[in-house]
What we know:
With 148 residues, this protein is mostly helical.
Amino acid sequence: MPFLALLAVLLGAAVCLQSTVNGQLAGRIGLPLTLAINSGVVFAGALVWYAIARWSGNTPTERLPAPWFLFTGGLFGLVIISCAAVAYPRLGAGTTTTLAVGTQVVVALVLDQLGATGRHVPLTPSRLLGVALVALGVWLSVSPPRAS
């Protein structure tokens, strides 16, 4: 579990850093070229992962059929990169990340409740309280400062 928690922390840092540099790059060379460069890097990295998996024998010998919607991950990646590159320079890293993480918590709880990730995690009063606290945190983070 500690390794998986470390991966989640790395994910959070990478999303924030990626969004920051992509927003800056998009402002200098344009969003389409930024997306093309990112896609190329991801594609090259994916080919390396695939080659390592094939070489080590860690690929399935039989491919199972998959419904069409399981192939939408790349589209979601495009949405993530595009939205972040546009929102980060305009809203700031804190506001954009706060809104994104708040949304992620709500969507994640719905997915858990539905068992969409392969594991059903019921919605409990403590999880609802957690969402309420996250919502309060989002509101506190994005609301404009009051004049004193």
